[in-house]
Structure formats: C-alpha cells, structure tokens
C-alpha cells in the first residue's frame, strides 16, 4: 500500500500558478538536459515548449505582483514543491556525473 502524500500547503491562486509553471519549466529543462537526453527531436520539442511555459511563469509572477502579492513565502512554496516531487524533478536538470571506469580498465 502506497502511503498518502502530505497535503499541499494553502496557496493563493497566484502561488499555485507560480509553482505549477515553475515545475513545468523544470520538467522541460530536464528533458532538454544534454547529459540525459538521447535524441535531438525530444530535446527540440521540449525546447519549443519551454518558450511558452517560460512566458506563463513570467505572467504568473506579473499577476502576483499586480495583485499586490509582493512577497514570496519561500518556506510555504518549498513545502509545496516538495509535496509535488520538486526535488526529484529539479534533479533532472543537473548534469549527470561521469561514469567511473572500473579499476583495471
């Protein structure tokens, strides 16, 4: 039986949009990561999608700012990212460490 994930913290609509857009951008960057991807076509498709998702991220932040949400509550947003598997997803953006040759090679 899979344990139930912790509940998301309470977020404003703007914060929810920010988190969603941020994770979409992270996912796309992970798909583009040249140390992980195996073909240019999937990386190209992810790069094309990245443009619109980056605009959506900018728009989410702009909307928050225009509504008077001038502070980012980083602890609450970090909890939301953790619940949504943000650590694993953002880890896909990192460069894969080089494979060590076995001793004697």
| Beta-strand proportion | under 5%
Determine Rg (CA atoms, Å). 17 Å
Helix content bin: 55-70%
Kindly name the structural category.
mainly alpha
Low-pLDDT regions: none
Q: Tell me the count of domains.
A: 1
Note the total helix count.
4
Give the H and E element order. HHHH
What does this protein structure show overall?
This protein is mainly alpha-helical. It has one domain (13-91). The protein has helices spanning 13-32, 40-66, 74-83, 86-91. α1 (13-32) runs antiparallel to α2. The radius of gyration is 17 Å and the shape is globular. The termini are far apart. The relative contact order is 0.21. The model has no long low-confidence stretch (mean pLDDT 92).
Summarize the structure.
The protein has helices at 13-32, 40-66, 74-83, 86-91. The protein is mostly helical and 105 residues long. The chain starts with 12 loop residues before the first helix and ends in a 14-residue tail after the last helix.
What attributes does this structure have?
105 residues, mainly alpha, 0% strand
Write the layout of secondary structure elements.
Elements: H1 13-32, H2 40-66, H3 74-83, H4 86-91
């Amino acid at each position: 039986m899979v344990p139930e994930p912790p509940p998301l913290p309470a977020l404003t609509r703007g914060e929810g949009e920010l988190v969603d857009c941020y994770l979409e951008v992270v996912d796309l960057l992970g798909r583009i990561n040249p140390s992980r991807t195996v073909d240019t076509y999937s990386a190209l498709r992810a790069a094309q999608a990245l443009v619109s998702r980056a605009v959506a991220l900018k728009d989410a932040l702009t909307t928050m700012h225009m509504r008077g949400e001038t502070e980012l509550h980083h602890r609450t947003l970090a909890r939301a990212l953790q619940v949504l598997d943000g650590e694993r997803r953002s880890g896909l953006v990192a460069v894969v460490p080089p494979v060590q040759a076995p001793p004697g090679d």
